[in-house]
Amino acid sequence: MPILVEPEGRNPSTAYVRQSMSEHVVYVLECADGSLYTGYTSDLERRVREHNAGDGAKYTRGRTPVELKYTERFESKSTAMSREYEIKQLTRREKERLVGLE
Questions:
Q1: What DSSP letter does each residue of 36-75 carry, written as one string?
Q2: Does the keyword Hydrolase apply (predicted)?
């Protein structure tokens, strides 16, 4: 959700729009070896680029390229991280159903 920002002491006509920083994303990647990786980020595009560049999680470094298969967006970091944990506890089959691979 965009937020209108009016810097103090400036003319209101110079207000600008800033994207909300409250987006927290849980994502599932499919790695080149067919394995699934679940993570959390506040900048999804950057994080997927990092994974593919070998700068992401240790798990994905030797399993590139990765492909984004699933996302869930949350207003709070704590809710997103709780959901990340829940997904990580799922079996492989349950994760495949979640992301639509089955």
A1: EEEEEES-HHHHHHHHHHT-S-HHHHTS-S-EEEEEEEES
A2: yes
Burial 63-86 (b: 16+ CB within 10 A, else e): beebebbbeeebeeeeebeebbee
- Which structure tokens are listed for 90? 């799922």
Each residue of 41-53: pLDDT tens digit? 999 999 999 999 9
In the chain, the domains with their CATH numbers are 21-99 (3.40.1440.10)
Residue 26: partners with Cβ closer than 8 Å, 6 or more residues away:
38, 39, 40, 71, 72, 74, 80, 83, 84, 87
